[in-house]
Amino acid sequence: MKRLLMAALCVFSLAGWGRPVLSQESLTPEKRQDIAKLLEISGAASMGKLFGQAMAKQMFETIRSLRPDIPAEILKLLEEELTSAVEQALFDKGGYLEIATTIYGKYLSHDDIKGLLAFYATPLGQKTISVMPIIAQESIAAGKQWGEAIGPVIMEKVIARFRQKGIEL
What we know:
The protein is mostly helical. The protein has seven helices and no strands. It is 80% helix and 0% strand. The model is unreliable at 1-21 (pLDDT under 50).
């Protein structure tokens, strides 16, 4: 029950973050093309590829742990095929890039996209592109540590409040 409560707290705490006003304009071919440029120049497309590779690696590791008897050469082929299939799915219809394009189009106007493309062409934009993966990686690690540290404190407060209201878990 405590795990369920902790999971619910995490979901609820993240649910309210970052609710921008939605762009009401349609996703024209020109806007799609500029979003594709933005995804490429900003590194978002590369991040999708990295996530795909990580997903393929996790699938490979799971299969390897379930079937340690599979010969090494077959495992190598399996890893290559998983990586290839996941990467291809990124670019297929309905894949990551199409989904990302729709999301960018939903929250950013075409003028916003053009402004970001102009920004990323500047020295500061180029620096931002180069440091964002490092910032994201460190932020995720720091957030994980922070969450692990504050989780028990929050849990105790919630449990105390429940007890105060006569609710037992």
